[in-house]
Amino acid sequence: MHGHARARDPMNVLAIGAHPDDIEYGCGGTLTLYAQRGHEVHLFVASDGAHGGDAAVRHQEQQDSALVIGAREVFWGGYPDTEVPLGRELIARIEGVIRQVRPQMIFVNSPDDTHQDHRHLAQAAVSATRYVPNFVFFEVPSTQNFTPNCYTNIEKVLDRKLACLEAHHSQVAKTNIEDLTILELAVSCANFRGIQARVKYAEAFQSVRLLLEI
What we know:
The chain is of the alpha/beta class and 214 residues long. It has helices spanning 22-36, 55-69, 88-101, 116-128, 158-166, 182-197; strands at residues 12-17, 40-47, 73-79, 105-109, 134-138, 150-153, 202-209.
């Protein structure tokens, strides 16, 4: 193990989500691990989530969640929920955040999704992140046809992942599946992806680019 004795140099990590709680569901555990290892974690949330509740409430919930993760800062796109625009404006907005954060690693919603905000954000992010060496898609409950090719073992931080999801109090019960909370959904998903990754609980990603540091 002596090859791993030296901690990796601190990186800037940026997670991009369409709505408050997308990031938490898709990569909350992974981001927590990055923060615990001393990396700088930043979040960019494109919409205020007002369609799913009061915007000010969701704003505060997102800040609470960022504290649980250990994220440094939350950037807001400020777009109305359901109206995240496809096109140059959103690409430029994401590029602006990338210039500030200078991330080496980026996480974003998957483009194959039933929600147009997620699709538009993912497409814009592909353009905006073209110079970032590491770029992966995460999944949320509305993601379709997700075929992961890399995983993070989140067994040690599953409770933190659930805590950052629970910080979004107004959303916990809203899953479109009766009697199923987002927390139960997240545990089932983590368990299923864990089985695929040969661990107990995992988050799963589709890599667009991964630079192997050797």
